[in-house]
Amino acid sequence: MRIFIAGIMQGTRLDDQIDSQSYREQIAAALQTHVPDVSILDPWALNPNSVTYDEERARHTFLTMTREAAKADMLIAYLPQPSMGTAMEMWEAFNAGLYIIAVTPLVHHWAVRFTASEILPDLETLLADIENGRIAHILRQRKPVDAPPLAD
Asked: Quick check: is 107 in a domain?
């Protein structure tokens, strides 16, 4: 099973720096320990120096990683604050029918409410759900996003 780890990198920053990415390591370690045959796609792990990329490479990386979100079996989005890139990854995953877990306090934010299959309050809850087997069970069931088609 392939899991895409989406989440805040620059978020609402006004500079060219990156927020801590330690959450990605925690999620990946828990998944590798508790989900048999998991394959993890983590844009940060693939591009740890992306803030130094030139314009062409940065554009290619951003667009490629956004499209890759739709090719997983599940997307986990860590959003302690808004992230435009993560919202785009969630949108791609939603349109592909993936199961999306948003880890966020942004429970009233439409981009989260209407694309996520479920919303968890914090990283600790997600890690507990990985450890107790709930996430592996969801993956085995391969539940698609339950959303009505958009009206014309």
From this structure: yes
